[in-house]
Design brief:
- The complex is a heterodimer of chains A (63) and B (463).
- Chain A has a domain of 41 residues.
- Helix content of chain A is 52%, strand content 0%.
- Chain A contains 2 helices and no strands.
- In chain A, α1 crosses α2.
- In chain B, α9 packs across α10 and α9 packs antiparallel against α11.
- The longest helix of chain B is centred in the C-terminal third of the chain and has 26 residues.
- Chain B is globular.
- Classes of the chains: A mainly alpha (63), B alpha/beta (463).
Chain lengths: 63, 463
Amino acid sequence: MSEIDDKGLDAMIEAGAKALDLPIDASRLPAIRANLKVTLGHGALVAGFALPDESEPAPIFRA
Amino acid sequence: MTDWDTAGVIARAVNAGDTTAVAVTEAALARIAAGNGQLNAFTAITADRALAKARAVDENRAAQATPLPLAGVPFAVKNLFDVAGLPTLAGSKINRDRVPATADSPLIQRLEASGAVLVGALNMGEYAYDFTGENVHDGPSRNPHDPSRMSGGSSGGSGTAVAAGFVPLALGSDTNGSIRVPSSFCGLFGLKPTYGRLSRAGSFPFVASLDHLGPLARSALDLALAYDAMQGYDPGDPACADRPAEPTVSLLEQGAEGLRIAVAGDWFKRGAYPEALTALETVANALGVTQEIIIPEAERARSAAYVITATEGAALHLDRLRHRAADFDPAVRDRLTAGALIPAPLVAEAQKFRRWYRDAVLKLFESVDIILAPATPCTAPLIGQQSFVIDGVELPVRPNIGLYTQPISFIGLPVVAVPVPLKPLPIGVQIIAAPWREDLALRTAHALEQAGIAAAPRPMENA
């Protein structure tokens, strides 16, 4: 996955917040952006692992 | 009796008639009254119900009933457990508006059925989303070994209460490390059982995929006593496994003899501070361990746990984020808000990877019984400390203390965190076993305690 710049992240926050009916004060943008960047980075690491199409998720997990 | 007696010692004394549950409970309440102002472990003290319960335990003994394994043992619970008559705070301001719980959580009921006495509810990080023990609403729970330092989170009050000697036993929750981190920072034994082993009914959730409940104590025997009392199927928790209780107390003396033990390498040593590696080496040497094992894709597992936590946590709190945003701890609120914006395919990928990783790690347990790893990368940071250096990179403290705990709870493996009493501050080591083999981790922890390697140091001893 390609890294999104701050402007792109802000656009993502604005659009996502609208879709979720989630009011966000502009003063919170830097903190949300920073957290989003980190979490997307973790997501990219996960998504970078090739799994077969037949892989089952673990929504009901049994240890 | 002393203020540092373990649960096992207290129960034996109460059952033998050498003391009473009322005397033990009154002493615990007096310690809390004297010390809680400084250390901030408790958010509610349930003195009246505790004394009533203690009297009932004493009457039970006077009636010559069967001895109870936790007779007269004072304990306290993280304030995400339902306690009848109290709102279940989960460390938040928002939940103060909840109606008080009408019943105790099943784990509290089971401990009290074994003779234990609930004395209060404990401070914690807001909605369990932290590793620090800090709380903007109630103030930080402080580390008894150095009150300027973190207790560790999110079960911070649980760590503080047991390490300060207020109570010998506390319950916490562990989604990504929240029992093992305060155990490490406060110098305690902590058990995160297998995912699905102990009922989570009657507790405020965080991440249903990853939430566990378990005990913190000052000895491995006390963990086993509490764990055995709490085992058993509960249909009230959909994730609770329908399997019979597998008691552990009688197995502890088998020790670690004959167990195949290895040290986790690679990710679990990368970034660790010298004290974490010293503790790990001390434990490994005591057990005669020379084998190193690589847990495959541990870093990616940590990332997948991070994504699942952020997104499930966001889903849980979405309505509160919409309508009560100003009432959150800003740090928690903005992490959760970011979690709400993560594209869904990444979450599905994380859950798929979880199954792959589980299968890969279970293969390791064909050749070993126990894996050792650090519990935390460092000893307790200062309260308010924002960053530390891990592997040469400056990182924020709050989300990164769980580097070594997250890849383990991600697939629900049972772990006992054992304290190594280094000076000036203790630090923990994870004793990790295969699913449903809590007995092996507890046996190993007990053996290390018997050998004098693992011990919960009294705060004054560590000064």
